[in-house]
Amino acid sequence: MTPLGARIRQLREERGISLKDMAAALNVSSAYLSALEHGKRGRPTGFLLHRIIAFFNVIWDEAEELQRLAEVSDPKVTIDTGGMLPEATELTNRLRDDIGKLESEDLRFLRDELVKRAGRKR
User: Fold this and answer.
1) Rounded Cα gap, residues 70 and 4, in angstroms
2) Within 10 A of 72 (CB to CB), how many other CB atoms are there?
3) 55: which of 69, 76, 81, 103 lies 20 to 30 Å off by Cα?
């Protein structure tokens, strides 16, 4: 499941909206919406994302959060480390091989540490 998919599902369930009803309102198939929630589909187009935001009638911070989540919700990432430090290539390959073995707590730690360290280099 992607961060965006998890949030869409949460919003839908909080409001008591079925997958079928939301899909019909957005003019997409239930299968597509289910795949989006489960991370089987890439992030939606900007047009569809704006329709989702309007569907949930969220504004300002919540809408920005959905847009941010969409940006980090591509389930099929490709990373080209050509020209980078050898450590970048090693890290990328280790993540490819081991990310599925990590606990949620470990993933949050690594994500937060990366964000912290990348932010201080700017």
Assistant:
1) 5
2) 12
3) 76
